[in-house]
Amino acid sequence: MTPTELKPAKKVHVLEAFIKAKCPRCRRGDIYSTPTYSFGGQKMHERCSHCGLHYEREPGYWYVAMFVSYAFNVAEMVTFAVGLHILTGSNSPWVYVGVLLGVIFILSPFNYRYSRVALLYWLTPGLNYEPWRAEDKFKVAPPEEKQD
Question: Does the keyword Membrane apply (predicted)?
């Protein structure tokens, strides 16, 4: 197949790409190599398999994702605490502590993954969607392995 026969890539909506944890620049390559909930942990690719974007923009880049994860946790705790109060009307702090600790534990893999994805998508200056990179003719060859 010649490059002229290649079809242009379908434009992927930002929310669809965010939910599927795709590369923010081309929205084709995967950011993670493992699912959200797995016993093996969450492993990120170093680079986008399609456009070659290096995900860790600078040393210590992922520390900012901790603040995003903290914001997710606060929003989830407030939401669940209000919902719990509406559903049960309980005044016992132990009910709230137990439920909220359970929610934090269950949602921690989600928060870990999507705090990094949100950081890449919306909080990184200069990193924008470039639809032309999604086309097959702009696919980057995989990096060569180092010879010892």
Answer: yes
